[in-house]
Write a structure and sequence with these properties.
The protein is of the alpha/beta class. It has 7 helices and 9 strands. Strands 1, 2, 3, 4, 5, 6, 7, 8 and 9 form a 9-stranded mixed β-sheet that branches.
């Protein structure tokens, strides 16, 4: 199975390096990393260029010709990803070493499903855990499990992505469109195991 990471960046210099390092620390490395940048004005491009020179997997870096916004920036990154399984990534989280391996295993265990979502340990801006996970937070709020739609915790089979892309322009976020549509198609498996830090900024 070929695995891609689709990462959308914009002025991510503060935290991007830590996320890229967590990709290298995976027990199962990705087969490619696709990064689309929404015309950052900070050091994001330089960070990616330096990383690409020593990364143990191919890195494709594309700068959008015009500012697209978060949703369409992810749409572009996903469209460029050629993996059988595509993992979405925000620029400011940090993945646990077993994340890719766990999601690949889940996809093998559920061959009839096309979307896999892991839990995430909530942290502050300095990556200090705040004592709960995203799924636990949702449950404590009385919301159903389907409220867990965070794209940064999701992986999609390529054949399902082909049905969901491009994201319609009338949508407000890539997360809601991709995961809610996958839910409507009964394609989602939610994993209770936290596989990453989910950084929240004040």
């Amino acid at each position: 199975m070929k695995i891609s990471i689709a990462l959308a960046t914009y002025n991510g210099e503060a935290y991007l390096g830590a996320q890229l390092d967590s990709f290298v620390a995976q027990t199962r490395l990705p087969d490619e990393l696709i990064i689309t940048d929404d015309q950052s004005t900070d050091a994001t491009a330089a960070i990616v260029a330096a990383f690409a020179m020593c990364a143990p997997f191919p890195v494709t870096f594309e700068i959008n010709t015009q500012r697209l916004g978060v949703m369409l920036n992810f749409d572009r990154a996903l469209g460029l990803s050629g993996g059988d399984l595509v993992l979405l990534s925000d620029q400011d989280d940090v993945w646990f070493p077993g994340k890719i391996e766990s999601l690949e295993r889940a996809s093998a265990q559920h061959p009839g499903k096309g979307c896999f979502i892991n839990d995430a340990l909530l942290t502050d801006g300095d990556l200090q855990p705040v004592g709960t996970t995203k799924m636990a937070q949702i449950e404590a709020s009385g919301l159903p499990a389907t409220a867990m739609v965070q794209g940064c915790c999701a992986a999609f089979r390529q054949d399902l992505l082909q049905c969901l892309l491009p994201i319609p322009l009338d949508q407000k976020s890539h997360d809601n469109w991709l995961v809610q549509m996958a839910d409507l198609l009964d394609q989602v498996v939610r994993l209770r195991t936290p596989l990453q830090y989910y950084r929240r900024h004040v």
